Amino acid sequence: MKILIVAAFFPPQNSIASLRPYSWAKWWSRAGHDVTVVTTIKKKMPNDSNLDCSFFKVISLQIPILSKITKLSKPITTEKQIKIKKHDIIIQILKKYFKKFSLKTGCFYSARFPDFHDLWVIKVKKMINANDYDIVISTGGPYSTHRVGYYIKKKNPKIKWIVDWRDYWTKSVEMKGLFIFRPYEKYLEKTFNNTADLISTVSEPFSETFRIMTKTKVITIYNGYDIEDFNFLKNKKRIVNKKLIIVYAGTIWPKISDPSPLFNAIECLDKAKKITPDNLEIIFLGNNADVKDLIQKYGINRYYSYKGFLSREDAIEYQYNADIGLLLGVNSHEARGVLTGKLFEMLVLCKEIWAIGLTNSMQAGDLIEKTNTGFCFGTNVRLIEKEIMERLKDNKRKDRQKNFEIIEQYNRKNQAEILLNTVKEI
């Protein structure tokens, strides 16, 4: 079959969101299908992933306005240094407030309308022939990818269109959008869902929500993990740490990623002189993952280090060698179906997972419990204190007896096969 994947996030972009569409392209092409991916041109970064994309076709198109914005952000060459400084200051102030606005609303942040990817859609429509494919799958966010899928479906009604939602759009907990655009967003969402032949999403609670919103068939395709991503670790033994190492790898989202209960517990143990920086260290790494302000609030700077936004391989190795892998979330009805791709990797990589803010009633917490990969603490500071002291005993820092029979169900190859087989049945 000829399959088109429409994805804004895709390698070499070092993002967990890139791995979902990449796994489909990888495993479907290996199964003998003709796969094409249309995505955005990526700015080269030092921490780019080096995943092999040679066995399928990748079409990369520029988001028009972003190239102009990038040029504007560069200093102006002039003889008068004062003009350069003024230009830089203005640009930095504008960028600061624009980023704050985008993070708060999701607008121009690949999450809510309007978004720069809407301009990218125009370019994609001009070069895509709707009759060249048997299946098109658009994965969002951004929602703009579904504009492409909708366009192709209208041009060629015989094609099977899958709308994939990695997260909620109009029901987003983190990014609420702008009030004036919400009715239009709901209209678009309804149109996409009702026109699609199949809807896929990342967890069963998410699927339940979408089933209420549309009569289109909805299935759960978990993010999962790809065991081949860990091949470079095969000949590497875990480091035996001299102190308890707790590692968080990922992005910090203000409303759903709060490590405060852990920091509070460490603060209490430090004040009671039960721990020192010689036997405990917290390491954070990832994009927008520096929590130094919160660390200072609890007065535990001596225990904390931020390693920056590392390459995927380096981030994986940090988690592999840590004594504790940290997962952050919130215990709310809206977030109960959040299952990040990072969690599935942690099931395989980490000696033990500590979920802060999550309870066993959440799907992520339930999965951690069923696989015997760690603990869910919710916001119970005293329980965290107790477990820290337990782990500081050498006999409590051994690898857990994980339930790999359950973990193996979430292999990305299996998830890709389930999705494609469901399409074939339509």
How many domains, in number, for the residues? 2
User: Which descriptor suits the 3D outline?
Assistant: globular
Q: What is the CATH level 1 assignment of the largest domain?
A: Alpha Beta
Please state how the strands of the largest beta sheet are arranged side by side: 3-2-1-4-5-6-7
The helix-strand sequence is EHEEHHHEHEHEHEEHEHEHEHEHEHHH
- What's the rounded overall pLDDT mean? 92
**CA-CA gap between termini:** 14 Å
DSSP summary, beta strand count = 13
The fourth-level CATH homologous superfamily of the largest domain is: Glycogen Phosphorylase B
User: If you consult CATH, what is the topology of the largest domain?
Assistant: Rossmann fold
Most strands sheet: 7 strands, parallel
Low-confidence stretches are 69-81
Beta-strand content: 15-25%
Helix content: 40-55%
Helix-and-strand structural type: alpha/beta
The radius of gyration over CA amounts to 23 Å
Tally of helical runs: 15
Architecture per CATH nomenclature, i.e. the level-2 architecture of the largest domain:
3-Layer(aba) Sandwich
